[in-house]
Each structure stands twice: as structure tokens, then as C-alpha cells.
Amino acid sequence: MSTALALISALLPLLAAPAPQSGRDKELAPPPLVVDGLTGIPIDIVDLRAALSFDAKAQTAFASATMSFDTTAEGFPLFDLRQREVVKAWLDGESLDPLKLASHTVSKNCGSMRILEVSLPAGSRHELKLEYKVGTPDAPQAQGVLWREKGVLWDTWFSDLNQGRYLESWFPANLIYDQHPMTLTIDLIGAGEDHHLITNGAVEERGKHQWTLTFPPTFTAFSHLIVLVPASEVETAKDKVKLKSGMSVEVEVFARKEAKVNAKKVAARTCEILQKYDEGVGKWAHTSYCPVYIWTGSRSMEYDGGTTTALGALEHEMFHSWYGRGAKPASQNDGWWDEAWNMYVTGGAGRLPEFTKDGPPVLLSSSDPYNRITPGGSYMQGRMFYARLAQAIGDEKLRALMAEFYSAHAPNPATTAEMEQLLIANGGKPDEVRRLFHRYVYGKDGEPSPASGR
Predict the structure, then answer these.
(1) Is 0.85 surpassed by the pTM of this model?
(2) Domains of the chain (ranges plus CATH)?
(3) What's the gap between Cα 322 and its chain centre?
(4) Collapsed DSSP state (helix, strand, coil) of residue 399
(5) Numbers of helices and strands, H then E, in the chain
């Protein structure tokens, strides 16, 4: 057993779900819609069980997945899977033609989703089982399995800037309103060297290069950090930190050798970041194990209680474990605030200008309930929105209210409307807060209605 896996196995009893899920899946789901003559209905996934097998010698991968779900209305269930070659399918134990799982364009902001072309009654539970070959996901800028001479490099490689780049890249999945547990077995056959499995799930090692991963019911489709990497490609280091909230967190860093960083220093820095925001924002909402995978380049990504990141983005990505993967956006229309607030806090709020006049309207929160893209403006224009809020109600009060928002929702989904309501109710300047949301979040000129910033 590798050092990393021995540590995780030892910590297994501590890696349970940090809190129960919100139970708001059906409430937060978008409405049904008609697509290509079919009434597509959102579903509530109850459980997902999957298996993934890599054959290093043949350089092939195969998966199976069983998704249990409840319907929210009568009609044709919507879900997504960006693997092209579904070989076999079953619905409630009966064989199903894979052609009845075709992708359909939903909207410009959503892209395509699969529709199960079997009409099902409202409030019923069903089980869909799929078997499929694993290749590069059919999604923008996706990365497939990278085969090595003696093994494999595989990364879930999520992105909030492209459609179809969450869990659906690899397994049947839902939009991000839906929380549910997942169990995944991974087998690596024929590898010529040891591999590390880097993950924010609980791990049981069943044998050499055989693992069972368990993810808690608070996870949504953007939560799962999984990297399978040859041990020869990374340097590792561990550190431990006792947080003010009382939890001790084990940090383990896996630094790619080409990144040329000191893994021990990265682990120590990660501990400092955990202390800083556990004290300054609120209680760490995740488990007692925090994995960090360091690479080169400009791309980085946040996950629940861990990150895959370039060194320069470490604090930004770890802060997302409070806003983004702690208090989670309930839809991609809410994904703007985790980037915007992150940029305001970690990007240095004191360097922002004073505002003496209005700028043009900015649309950060789309009105498309099926939107699957965080707008690029969330970073800088969103940061400016929070700077305007701070100028209106005060930086100290804004930070306190945002910490209250975090504590009220983590580790579950929250909406833009809920954030707006909190800031209107407690910010001391309700009309100005409402006006700022109306102009710089919902992208509307003029004055908002009294009841809503929209």
C-alpha cells in the first residue's frame, strides 16, 4: 500500500459526510421544458454507483454506472453523460436501446443534455444502468485518459467555464442543484509502476491498484476530485493543522515534478490558508483530509475540501472550499458569486477604486434556469460589484454578512436571491443593495422593483 493510501485508510472513520444534505434538490430543480417534442423533466438522483477499469497494457478503459433517481414531474428524464459510446443500457432491469438516451440541445447556455426517451410518472423511483467505453469527453476543452508507458494519468478535470465538464464528463450526472452520494470502484490492470490515487472521497484499498471511493450525500456534480497518477511523476509531502473551530486537518500535497516546487512548503502554506479562513470566515465544512495536486500552467480547479492547481492560484482555489464548494452555488446562475467574492477577498480589496458614478449594466446571473456556464465577467466585474457593495454598506459589515451567508448554507447549495435577501435585510441600505444587484448582477438598467433586484 502506498503512503498516501495508508494515510487515507487510517483516516477512513473520520472521512464521513461533514453535515447532512439540504434536502432541497426538488425545490432547486429547474422547471420541465419541451425539447424536440419531448417534455424533459429534471430528476433527483438518489444514489450513483459506478465502476471504472483501466487496462494499462491495452490502453483501454471501460465503465459501468447505476443511477437511482426520482422523477419530479411526468415526462422524459433529463441527465447528462459526455462519454460517446454507450454499449448497453437497462431501465428498471429491462434492456433499453442506447439510442433512447440521445443528447438534445437544451439552450445556448446549457448546451446539450441526454433525454431518457421513456415517459415516466411523477414522483416515481427508477434505476438506470449503463455500460460504456471511456474516452475523451464530448465537451469543450475536455481532457481524456493520458496513457503512460507503465500506467495512466487520469484526472476528473472539471471546469465551470465549459458545458458538460463536471461529473457528467465520466459518469451519468445531473445539474448542480442535486446532492447525492456516490460509490466508485477503480481498478488499474497491468501497470508497471505504483500509482497514487488523489481524492477528496473516503478510500478503501481492496488490493494492488484496486480502490473503492465513497463520496458523501452533500456532493454535487462539481465536487469530486479524483486523480490517478504514476508515483514517479510527483513529489509528496504532508502537514497537519489544528483549526480554531477545533478540527485537525491532514494536508497532503502531490506536486508534479515539472512544477519544480517544494511540496513541504506548499503543505505548510495550505495549512496557513486553512487557519486563516477557518478563523476569518467560518468553520471548515469538509473532512479531516485535504488533498492538493500541484501542476504547471494557468488552469486550476476547486473541489470540496481540496484542489488541483498551479502554485500561484493555491489561495484562490482553497478559498473556494468556503465559497463555491462550501456554500455551493445552487445553479450556474449562482456560480458568479463564488468567483466574484473570492476575487474580492483573495485579490486584495484595498486596491480597488472608489466609485463616483454608475458603470454600464453587467449580467452575471442569467435568467436561463438550465445555464451551465459561469460567465467570465464573474472574476473582475464581479469583484467590482462587491467593491461597490462595500462602499455602500462598509467592508467590515459586508464581510460579516458574507460569513453569515456561508455559515447558514455550507456545505449545501445557495442561490443569488438568498444572498441578495440577506444583504438587503441586514446591510443597512436596502434600496442601494437592491439597486446594485439589479444593475451589476442582473444586468438591468433603470430602477428595480421594490420586491426584487431583478
Answers:
(1) yes
(2) 1-21+179-326 (3.30.2010.30), 328-440 (1.10.390.10)
(3) 12
(4) helix
(5) 9, 24
